[in-house]
Design goal:
This protein is an alpha/beta fold. It is built from 11 helices and 8 strands. The chain has helices at residues 13-16, 29-44, 79-89, 101-107, 109-118, 163-170, 183-195, 217-223, 237-244, 265-269, 284-288, and strands spanning 51-55, 70-73, 94-100, 123-128, 174-179, 200-205, 224-226, 251-258. Helix 4 packs across helix 5 (109-118) and helix 6 packs antiparallel against helix 9 (237-244). Bound molecules: iron/sulfur cluster and magnesium ion. Residues 100-102, 129, 131-133, 140 line the site of magnesium ion (MG).
Length: 291
Amino acid sequence: MTVTKTDQKKVTLADLTTKEYPSWCQGCGDHTILFTLKNALVELDIDPHNVVIVTGIGCGSKVNHFIRAYGFEGLHGRALPVASGIKLANKDLTVIVVGGDGDGYGIGGNHFIQSMRRNLDITYLVQNNAVYGLTKGQYSPTSSKGFKSSSTPDGALEEPINPLATAIVSGATYVARGYSMETKHLQKLIVDAVRHKGFSLVDILQICTTYNKVNTWDFFKQRLYKLEGSNYDATSRRGALQKAEEWGDKIPIGLLYKDEHKPSYEDKYADSIVGHDISNVDITPFLNRFR
Ligand code: SF4
Ligand code: MG
């Protein structure tokens, strides 16, 4: 993605800090994801006025209240269409979408697929705690089969969706999985995702201490391993799909798939609206139609 730098001064954490404080539960993964995203923006050294953070609805979708940059908190599941419009209007902006698994993979599931199909140059960070936290703990599209919740007291009947496999087959060109407790590792994934030219997804496994008693710290501690340092080849689509299927005693985190050759949507079809010379455009005939 274009990382626009117009200020000489290096961006610091203080530049990105607002007067608001999160009220997330103690131990919630949203805290470390927020902290890590801010550190990633410092590392990327993008001027805050060139960053737009678009969110949906959910506990974690409040992140743009706590980062001093442009922000838009949209309707439930509709963050990606808003982000698409922003990016098409001004290609020079760094557009980052943040939201939960219920928001993005459930309610916004079709937007998720269509945005990746276009390979828009935006970064999507999904706080995947496998539950709807804000609305009091209903099961989500990534809850495991049999997950007991307020809406599934006898256990979820459905199989969970596989967001990484969905992303790979739908056309995303950077697909990674992080973990909210592995902050340095996650920071690198986010930095690389923002720098990637095209649609980048970082699915972030996170703890919901209040409503998810299955995907706990111990659950992840026993299963997660990093792809970095192994001989894993992230350029193979077929290999990435196989890796995305791995969810059991071992669960991989890291970069699963990257395609650096596919052009991004806005570079193929659209000039930014911002920056166009409109001095010779007369919209009077158009306005007259409504008089
Ligand atoms: Fe975090 Fe869950 Fe509490 Fe929401 S309900 S703030 S996701 S721990
Ligand atoms: Mg959730």
